Here is the input.
Amino acid sequence: MSSPDARVPAKLRGRGDPHDPVLTSKITRPDLPAWAVARPRIDKLIAEGVRGPLTSVTGPPGAGKTMAIVAWAAAASYPGTLAWLTVDDYDNRPRVFWAYVAAALRRAGVAVPRVVPGPGRVAVDHVFLARLASVLAEQDPPVILVLDDLHLLTEPAVLDGLAYLLRNAAPGLHLVVASRADPLLPLHRYRVAGQLAEIRADDLAFSVQESGLLVAHHGLTLPTSMLERITGRTEGWAAGMRLAALSLQGHDDPELFVKELETGDSAITSYLIEEVLNAQPAPVRAMLLRTSVLDSFSADLVCELTDDPRWVDRLPALARANAFIRPLGHGWYRYHSLFATVLRLKLRIECRGQLADLYQRAARWCRRNGRLGEAVRYAAESGDWPLAAGMVVDEFAMGQLIEARGHPPLAEAFACLPRDAVWTKPEPWLVQAATRLCRGRGETVPGPLDAAESMLGRLPAGDQIPARLAAALIRLALARRAGDLEAATAASSRAQALAARLPGEVHARHPELEAQVLAGRGVVELWAGRLDEAAEFFAEGAARSAPAAAYERADCLGYLALVEALSGRLGRAVERAEAAAEAISSASDDLTEHIISGAAVALAWVHLQHGDMREAHAQLKLAESALRTSPDKLMSALACAVAAQRGVAGGRATAAVEMIRRAREEWSPSPPGWLQARLAILESRAWTAAGDFPAAVAAAQHAGPGPEATAALAHAWLAAGDEQAARRVLGTEGPESAELGPALADARLSYGTGDGARGRRCLERALQLAKPEQVKLPFALERTWLRQVLRRDPELAGAYRELLEPDVLNPGMAPPPKKPSVPDQPMPLVVERLSVREREVLAHASEMLSTAEIAAEMYLSVNTVKTHLRSIYRKLSATHRSEAVRRAQQLELI
Here is the structure.
């Protein structure tokens, strides 16, 4: 800047001539405050940006734009001269603006021409701009001109002149601008040419680590969990973090301050009201308040709530100009979380009487546009519970209430449904019954369900089919949890008949309906022990599930995997379970971590038969987690049966007997006959292992006829030392028995009575039957006598080594390393290391905690945990949680 003129007051410094005075404060780079935090990542972004002609730093008020540029200027050794100008409203007059630009450049030591007035009172002659561009173009090193608060510059003549200068002063001029919105310059030209560096609010946002440094500058030390909460609540907004640090200095209870911050009762609220909300024009302010009831919004939804169609064109421009409106993509936006809180507080103060109407409008718009979850939530917020419940029933979404499926948005919407209200419509009663069922309060379901059905019963049979179908599905779910086959059969038949009466366009809009009904019918067939018929219904349900019905498809495939496992088709069971996992992985984020209990129990069964006790246990834990969310009596009993068989194999006979007892209890009236038989066979093997041979014989006799029952009874008699009784049970079938169990029992009996030839034929037959599906468990259970036999028959042992190792051939040998699920697939390679936080998330995931439980345990948001899990899946090449845990265990990461 030129030397001050003695005739000009001291506060007016830097001028082209005595008629063009300038304020020194406008052309002086601000000082860096003592509490400023070093942020090398932002410095790097700006340093890389000034290599090109234009760097744009944009963000809302208080985003730290100016501070970021000042910090870079103070710390960087940039090549060139730095000139600074803070823009204000008065700079929209060309002569004033260019006088300040000239003064700023002179202050930086650049000899620039005098500002030449144009023909008007405030205009600037074009000759001046051409000379200025010529002078700057020759600067070496180049000049870096910082224009702060450029959003205040709106005069076209000034902006056109600035664009002209930028275009013609290269390579000697690098322009750095700070603005609340994209500057009104031809950005597209520089963006296409790769000559524009854009630093936005998300880049300027404080990280948790930077937040810790900031509060430390204010003499505070906070735990990481609290820093994460404050940073998350402010979304890293620099002014918010600074105000939080200042407030915490005088706050005796930091935890209370964080709660106040989360409810909007803090100093930050006043800042947002005065600096952001009240600075808006009246129509914009009104729109902001009315739409604050929304979690996210589009231009059409804004028009719905404001009765003003002009927002279709105005909203995108407003979003570009106001960084507290955050774009979500595809024409949708949301408010900064703190700003949204402030808007809602002001709305309740200024327009409380409009709240219900705004929520109801939003609910109806969302339902018309296929956004049911939001529609129900907004209807519930309005207090119109019949409207909210009616949407669930009419959109055939009752299944989402009955089964939470990870994060239950619909169930959460009804958390405040009045308990003691007396409804005049069936829909609220149905929702109340479903939500009670979802929360595990099955004993309280019949009251509201009976109330709904009594109302429906007074209507003609063809009326309110959606409500009748919802009632049938609730009855079916209740029966499945209670173990009532008769009630389940009746409810399934009723649901199937009602679904058949719905028009085709309803089925087209709700592809999940038919899959739900077919799955219900398949469960009834499975319950009755008709495995082939059950498989047909499950296969048909999976085939008819559209991509939008990913959960229903996965559910059918999970049950199909279970049927295959129970039928002994272990390879096909694995294929079906993998297909179920693939269906879930293709679903939305809310379902990607959902566990299909049928698939988990099926895989546990398969791994147990393959002799992999560790993986069987892992799948049982997954099943247990799933059944806590969605109880199912039959599925729980089968899980107990797998656990009991694992206990017998592991030498824990007493624990196995207890698991069998649990599988039998609380049925209405009793377990299905086929399940009773399987449990009796297991019980016999458990008592045999425990040394209670009379109990073992009695249990096997209760199992009834069948090859496995015969084998169990024979083994019980042999353990008791009664070979004649064992021979009577086995009869004279000989070594050619078509069943593995009797063949193996006959082999034991024959070797024990000295008939080695028959024993070898029977044993080889049993091994041949086991080989196609790699069934190892029966031989592990008989390892005591098999070891002696095979030690004398190395040829037979060598021919079937893959079925007999390690338990039978190598006693005392440690279990081999776990293999990948696909036999020839190499061990997964971790190309990118897991972070400490990701390993912690993975460790909690291996303990069967839900996403919400992990978030609570680690003091993170659910979305943050989801982000970590997605990163873990990518790094471990996994598609779902159980696969990631399994691979992490293989790699010894957890």
In short: The chain has 48 helices and eight strands. Confidence is low (pLDDT under 50) at residues 1-19, 812-831. The longest strand covers residues 173-179. The radius of gyration is 37 Å.
